[in-house]
Amino acid sequence: MKKCSICGIEKPLDDFKIINRNKDKHDNYCRQCRSVRYQVKTKGMTSEQILSYEVTGHKVCKDCHIEKPLKDYPADRSSGDGHKTTCSLCTILRNKKYYQNSSDSKAKYREAHREKTNEYHKLQCRQTKTLVMTHYGNGECKCVLCNEKRLPCLTIDHINGGGTKHRRSINIANGGGLHFYKWLIDNGYPIGYRTLCWNCQFVVEEEKRVIKYLTK
């Protein structure tokens, strides 16, 4: 329990905003009083007007200016009343606009710095591929069968087959490439893979087809 410095009422700690710099890690004002102070300052409303709808569990959205129940507002522990200042609908519209503007800005930057961006992505791809090929090449970036070391010649082989089916199951198509290498890293380098050059992989696949044909 804690006593609010404004209303003087002793309330549970859950009614106080978390502030780490205070000794008890909680605000000196309860959430309701903090909300009243904020809205009086920003909206020019009197304390009586604010309390009249906050007591009934309502608040006015900062964007659409419509009074709505607190359940229509996303939770926000840093806010005075434990909810965001914008309702759920306005919050969605805000986020959508933000991500759209962010995407447009990134697209403009890529267009203005095309060569620099391409070089950066090529470098990232080479570094990621080298990391994966080294892990599945028994500690060396080379084919485990013929010792081919040229990076463009190396690829990841599914030892037990079914590579295309597996990539489709994890929503990676068109051979995988960088996306598949990142998937291997993110999943802690699962077993069942090895580093082969394209020639060795082709030979291995042909051997599998012959064995499958002879065993029919």
The residue fraction in helices comes out at: 40-55%
| Domain unit count | 2
Q: SSE string, helix = H, strand = E?
A: EEEEHHEEHHEHHEH
What characteristic shape results from the CA principal axes?
elongated
Cross-sheet strand order for the largest sheet: 1-2
Instruction: From the alpha carbons, calculate the radius of gyration and give it in angstroms.
Output: 30 Å
Could you characterize the architecture of this molecule?
This protein is α+β, with helices and mostly antiparallel strands and 216 residues long. It folds into 2 domains: 2-88, no CATH class; 114-214, no CATH class. Helix content is 47%, strand content 13%. It has a two-stranded antiparallel sheet. Strands 3-4 form a two-stranded antiparallel ribbon. A two-stranded antiparallel sheet has the order 5-6. The longest helix has 25 residues, at 88-112. 17% of the residues are buried. The model has no long low-confidence stretch (mean pLDDT 82).
Please describe the topology of this protein.
Blueprint: E1 2-3, E2 10-11, E3 16-18, E4 26-30, H1 31-43, H2 47-54, E5 58-60, E6 67-69, H3 88-112, H4 114-136, E7 154-158, H5 163-169, H6 178-186, E8 193-197, H7 198-214
Antiparallel strand pairs: 1-2, 3-4, 5-6, 7-8
What's a quick, concise take on this entry?
Helices cover 47% and strands 13% of the residues.
Keywords:
216 residues; alpha+beta; elongated; 7 helices; 2 domains; two-stranded antiparallel ribbon
